[in-house]
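Entry for the shared binder. Reason: the reviewer on the internal report wants the predicted structure included alongside the sequence.
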Amino acid sequence: MQYYIDPLRYEREIGAVLSQLKVRHILLVCGKHSAQTPVCAFMKNPGADQTVAVTCFQAFSPNPRYEEIREGVRVFREHCCDFVAAVGGGSAIDVAKCIAVFAGMQEDRSYLEQEIVPCNIPLLAVPTTAGTGSEATQFAVIYADGEKRSVEHKSALPGYVLLYPDNLLTLPDYQKKVTVCDALAHAVESYWSVHATAESKRLSETAIGLILDNMEGYWRDGGYEERRHMLLASNLAGQAIHITKTTAAHAMCYKLTTLAGIAHGHAVMRCLPEVWAYMQEHAAACIDSRGRAYLQETLHALANCLRQETPADAIRFLRELRSRAGLDTGLAGAVGEEQLELLVNSVNPERLGNFPIALSRDALYGIYRNIITEKL
């Protein structure tokens, strides 16, 4: 059960949480940009209770590496911390999740090779972007030996969440666009996932509606209400993904992110319409136990959620949205035919199992070829 902190009373409510839990030492995980936010400033000195010590941990990359997580666990233990707070984007929150999960495990061997055991380290997540929804899931992504590794456990689900709209005030335009695209991709992929439920679809529908209603205003000038609604949309899409997990578009985007040096949301938006186009053309390969007719009904309903009449219209809409956001560039010269084998080999088979259409290696080659040639 997550506790959502009122953004207008966050100082009082966080103080009450720390007091109730008798917190003695906070490990504050934050990036350099996030360290300048009012919430982060408060977390460094949480109220008048000077018995609460705070240690900051900022030594992690945008694509967090296992070695960095291990150092975070060392810092947590060295200072005898008993609470973890993350203020930042998806990377900071994922780092904090992993530190909280790994802190109770044996340090004489790789945490990634051990079975995760439940822990009771309280975790507060304060997102500073409206896109990842990481504060609403029990998943984290880190990199070990250059390869993406997923960490999943109920102990990684933050118990406390603060959605503070002013955290989005100073985001660069590019980050606004790519994080919105990431949130939209979460909602879309969750909707068609083989694990989709009535609840996850309801969450996705609400998230998509909020994104479509507030996206342009958020990108243009980002008023308070637009910021508030985008944070909520991202959170709801994260809740949907918490139920269903991501599918092919996310599975295919990670290596593009590292090869091209682009943001995660940029890479996933390059994949999303091309993956849907393939699914539309190969419905006969449906592996969802509810059948092909169910899948076709789902894709039509999803198109309607996107305020389009047909799936073909929805695919066109996503491509046009990608273009309006300026995300049709970024791969030329960085990713070519010679990287196709590397891209195909990088795809996580588990995530493909969540996709309602069977994807062979030949299918992946074809989809990637469309992506890297910027087919519109």
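Summary line for the report: The two ends are 43 Å apart (CA to CA).
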